[in-house]
């Protein structure tokens, strides 16, 4: 079992602590939190071992899970890498692209593993359909959330939209050509609602909307490609795959057939895969353990996290 430690015991940090503690891939050694009052409260309530310094924790573990505020990701990662520790780092990977690139360089120099916490990659609805997403040419995403003061220290693009940016970059096998965006600050000092358009060199276009001032929560993505439409509901963990094929010469009474202006007939059919429920955060942590023990490539690499941040930063700059 890998000895694991957690940096940060806030809302998400406590979730990571609980899951690492129950995982059979890790031995949870303890945690560090800069807020000593909160740290002692967490230690007393849950029984986790509290370390009074980052270095003390790092010296006791094989892998560190960085769940601190984004501004401190870079410093925490540097210190962990300097001690030869594998790093799992929550999204966004760092505060700036330059910091992310430096972390990648350091990781390569020390020959250790790193993974970024883009948890939607492990959403069971996305896992169920990702193999059906082949060369999408138009993508539409909506990630809407009710207002919550937590996270409003960064633009909604880095708080919410970056999830969809990562998903899109994982399925579109082409370089980004250009980005355009607009947004509005309603309650916070940074934009609370934003819309972005990402155009790729292969002609694919992605239209993304993110809001943290909505009346209801929504996390939906739609992928359009030749002869197929794929919908993923990340919130409800549901998916839909609608495909088209050449219509039979003699369609059945219940077959859905469309005919275009050229007279070509297509049959519409549903090919919805089975969804296997999981705990996405536990899965991302345990697949990282597998990458460490087998010396293999993590599912969400630091390169992936850096590119998602790069596009998110381009969007923020246009806001």
Automatic annotation (TrEMBL):
Annotated signal sequence is: none
Lineage start? Bacteria, Pseudomonadati, Bacteroidota, Flavobacteriia, Flavobacteriales
Q: Which residues form the GFO/IDH/MocA-like oxidoreductase domain?
A: 156-216
InterPro entries registered for this protein in UniProt: Gfo/Idh/MocA-like_OxRdtase_N (IPR000683), Gfo/Idh/MocA_Oxidoreductases (IPR051450), GFO_IDH_MocA-like_dom (IPR055170), NAD(P)-bd_dom_sf (IPR036291)
Q: Kindly list the GO molecular function terms attached to this UniProt entry.
A: nucleotide binding
User: Do you know which Pfam families this protein is assigned to?
Assistant: GFO_IDH_MocA (PF01408), GFO_IDH_MocA_C3 (PF22725)
The name under which this protein is listed is Oxidoreductase
**Coiled-coil residue spans:** none
Q: Which organism is it from?
A: Mangrovimonas yunxiaonensis
Q: Which residues form the Gfo/Idh/MocA-like oxidoreductase N-terminal domain?
A: 3-118
């Amino acid at each position: 079992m890998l000895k694991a430690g957690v940096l940060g015991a806030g809302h998400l940090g406590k979730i990571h602590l609980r899951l690492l503690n129950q995982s059979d891939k890790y031995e949870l050694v303890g945690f560090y939190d800069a807020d000593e009052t909160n740290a002692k409260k967490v230690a007393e309530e849950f029984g986790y071992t509290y370390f009074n310094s980052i270095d003390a924790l790092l010296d006791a573990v094989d892998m560190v899970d960085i769940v601190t505020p984004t501004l401190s990701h870079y410093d925490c990662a540097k210190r962990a890498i300097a001690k030869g520790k594998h790093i799992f780092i929550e999204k966004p990977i760092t505060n700036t692209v330059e910091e992310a690139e430096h972390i990648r360089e350091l990781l390569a120099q020390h020959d250790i593993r790193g993974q970024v916490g883009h948890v939607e990659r492990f959403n069971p609805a996305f896992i169920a359909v990702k193999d059906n997403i082949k060369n999408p040419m138009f993508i539409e995403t909506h990630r809407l959330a009710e207002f919550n003061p937590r996270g409003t220290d960064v633009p909604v693009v880095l708080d919410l939209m970056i999830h969809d940016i990562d998903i899109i970059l994982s399925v579109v096998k082409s370089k980004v050509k250009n980005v355009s965006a607009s947004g509005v600050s309603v309650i916070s000092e940074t934009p609370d609602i934003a819309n972005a358009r990402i155009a790729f060199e292969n002609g694919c276009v992605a239209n993304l909307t993110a809001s943290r001032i909505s009346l209801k929560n929504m996390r939906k993505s739609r992928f359009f490609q030749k002869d197929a439409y794929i919908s993923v509901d990340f919130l409800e963990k549901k998916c839909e795959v609608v495909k088209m094929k050449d219509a039979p010469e003699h369609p059945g009474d219940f077959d859905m057939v469309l005919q275009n202006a050229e007279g070509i007939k297509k049959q519409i059919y549903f090919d919805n895969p089975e969804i296997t429920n999981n705990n996405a955060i536990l899965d991302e942590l345990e697949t990282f353990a597998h990458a460490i023990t087998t010396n293999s490539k993590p599912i969400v690499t630091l390169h992936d996290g850096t590119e998602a941040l790069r596009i998110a930063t381009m969007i923020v700059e246009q806001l």
